[in-house]
Amino acid sequence: MQWLLKIRQDDGGWTVPIQTNYFDGKTMYRLTGSYAEPVEPDRTQRFSHLGTDMVLRAFAAHPAYCKSPEARYAGELLKSRFFKPDVYSSYKAARYWTRFVHWWPNLLTAMESLARLGFTADDPDIQKGLQWFFEHRKEDGLWDLEYGRKDVPQGKNYAQERAWLSLRICRLIKQYAE
Length: 178
What we know:
Blueprint: H1 2-6, H2 25-33, H3 49-61, H4 69-79, H5 107-116, H6 124-135, H7 158-177
Helix pairs in contact: 3-4, 3-5, 5-7
């Protein structure tokens, strides 16, 4: 946790360090395709909501660090970016907020962490997120795995994944209602 606090961006959020250096394609391929020393982030660059969401999951799960002012501040940054494009290219499209693949950051993962960090339903950004879930529930009472695309692939486990996603969303709504 201390290491995560040490590698924050100057604005208080986090990013994927390699993205802040704007390497050309050949250098990026070399750095990601074979052994290379870790790249230090340019901390003067803006935070990424993708990176900040991933790091805040760890803070939200920790009994002491979830109450830290640094986590609270990063939570403020994260929720201010709901439904906006990320500043870095790998996750730039705003539609990624509503792409509910289990491991990638999205509106659900962000709001789950923010609830554990102490953000409540009376916060305007949290209300905006909750409202999105209320407005996008389907007639069968469930939510889809992805929004913002016309051709969402539906693999063999689609129905089961959709049910598990909907359970998580219901738990989130209940958590904010308490």
